[in-house]
Amino acid sequence: MEKFKKLDSVAAPLDMINVDTDRIIPKQFLKTIKRSGLGRYLFNDMRYQADGSDNPDFVLNKPAYRGAQILVAGDNFGCGSSREHAPWALADFGIRCVISSSFADIFYNNSFKNGILLIRVSPEELEALMDDAEKGGNARLTVDLESQTVTRPNGEVIRFDIDPFRKRCLIEGLDDIGLTLQHASQIDSFEARQRGAQPWLYGAAKA
What we know:
This protein has helices at 21-24, 44-47, 85-93, 105-113, 123-133, 164-172, 176-181, 184-197, and strands spanning 6-9, 11-14, 70-73, 97-100, 117-120, 141-144, 149-151, 157-159. By secondary structure, the protein is α/β, with parallel strands linked by helices. The chain has one domain (6-198): Aconitase, domain 4 (Alpha-Beta Barrel). A 4-stranded antiparallel sheet has the order 1-6-7-8. It has a 4-stranded parallel sheet with strand order 2-3-4-5, with helices on both faces.
C-alpha cells in the first residue's frame, strides 16, 4: 500500500449528500476481485452519457479537476451496501483523500484499509472547503497527515482527528497483509514448532 504523509492537490467538489456505494461503483462492475482497472467505472452513471461519451457537466470530467487527488463530498458519503470495490475504484482513479462531514462506517473502514485518507470536518468547515474546491485550479488544498491538518488556499488551517492506529498504517503504508508480515519471524517460529509437534498437519506421516 502506498504511504500517505502529505498531499497537495486541487480538490474536486462533489456537493451531493448521501452518495452511496452504487453511485461510486455501480453493481454491474463488481464481477472482478482485482483492484486495478476499476477507476474507469468510478461514478459511471454520472460520469458518462448514454452513448458512453464523457458527461461534460460532471465535475471529474472538467479540465480543472481531471488530476484531482482530493474529493470534497457532501454529508453521509459512502452509504449503502458494503462493497469494497468503492474504495478500490476511488484509489485506482487516483483519489487519495476524501473530505466530508460524515461517512458510512463500513465504507470508512474499507477506505483506510485501501490507503485512502477520510477526513471528517464540521458542516461549517465542509462548506468552506467546498467553496475552495469550486475555484478549481485557482485553489489547492494541502493535507498533512502527520500534523493532522488541512491548509486552505487562504492559509487557514483546519485540524482533524484520526485514530492513531489508522494514522500509523497510512503513514507506513501498511494494509492488513503488511501488518501481518511485520510478524513474519514469529509466524515462522510458530510453524517450525508446530511442524515438529504435529507433522501430519504439513503432510508428513504421523510417527
